[in-house]
What does this fold into?
Amino acid sequence: MGNFADFYATRLYPGISAALSWVASPFRGSLTEWLVILAVVIFIWLIIRAIRKKERWWKCLLKEAALLLGIYVWFYAGWGLNYSRSDLHTRLGSMPMPYEEAEFQEFLTEFARQLNENWCDAESVDEAAVEAHVKAWYAALPAECGLCQPKPWQHPKRLMFNRLFSAVGVLGFIGPFFDEMHVNRDVSPVEYPFVFAHEYAHVLGISNEAEANFWAFENCRHADDQTIRYAAWYMLLTYVAGNIRSLLGEEDFQAWADTLRPEVRLDLELSQLHWKELRWDALAKAQRRFYDFFLRSNHIADGTKNYGQVLRLVLTYSDLHLHEDGEEG
It folds into this structure.
């Protein structure tokens, strides 16, 4: 499957994605949402029709199986085969950097410095400027990175059930049936650039959540706009705080966190309160379990924990150790 998945990701998917997203481009709303609703309606209608016509149960079952098979094939042909492609290390012919305490401590010093220096009071975000930067940066990546070329007609879609996605803590997602990207309207200005870049990495063929976080981080940290740069470091912290705590221990982690300026810590506190107010706990837990199962069944062995593994990719590929010479990779 791996060789075919790589062929699909590099040779077939770019054309499929361009075509599907072009078909969906005239619509501001999400065709993915409408397709799911239509599938549910047809599924229920088949049952009701079978009952009214006293149809044999196995005939109804075959029709519903055909419907589910069609959705399954569309999902994997339109985007899902990217789950089986080679990982970033394989594509770049490299190995993950082994953990070394001295280099990690150096990275944490730089991490805190970047968070503090790039902090800004972002009350709003220029969404057009974010899109222009994200697409231009992705377009300049070398082919061996394995991302498709951005298309001018690919824009975020408005969600009809935005409140429902906020209730389960989903900041954004890709609609695999038309390769649409979605950004939750409840994300804050400081979250928006990173979420946009993360979801657009999925549109460009990246399925691994840690890798999508890595590309979003690299993309945003190289922006001229300070709000976008701050989003890179701020959102990275939200994903890897637990990893850092486990590596340092609670006491050393708190000592490091105390080096962050109060405004950064306040942003984190306000964000936690914001999403807590929107969350429906029971539904959020159910969604997280389902998505964890979904990722594990699609070659993401660590499930939802994969998001936080971005730290290994950052330490391996970001060349942040060069900052001591006054440079950045």
